[in-house]
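Supplementary Methods, section 5.1.

A reviewer requested that the exact input to the structure prediction be made available. We therefore reproduce it here, unchanged from the version used in the analyses.
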Amino acid sequence: MRTWHVFYNTDREIMWCSDAGVTASIISQQQAQNLRYLEVSVEGMLDASLYYINEAEDNVVGKTAFEPSIPTLEPVLGTPLSITNIPIGTKVYMNDELKTTMTDTTLNLTFTDPGQFLVLFKRTENIDYAFTLTTAREA
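The structure derived from this sequence is encoded token-by-token as follows.
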């Protein structure tokens, strides 16, 4: 078991962690930047991108994978595309711009411009999930 010093935000996302010594001064500096502190023991490495802080804020939990149902990565212009199985609370980014936070489990998109669009799903409890949609003109 290794002792990890974990700094996380109010969404319980781990911002950074270290298994080296952390001083009271470092903890104070991080708290001044609105980060919370937790010391945990974990077997092996603690990869901040694969874990988050539990609701009780007393331990880390492994993130799960997104499993969206995407009918096509090449939607036709003007034709609705419904992506299902997205957890409520997921933040949806398109080309690095936050577009919405899911209040339902289905994302409905209709593209009017041709091009490539990088879509990113982010949620504290899940590993980030990115994919590219390339819009195509009607066949």
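The chain has two domains: 2-62, 81-135. These observations are discussed further in the main text.
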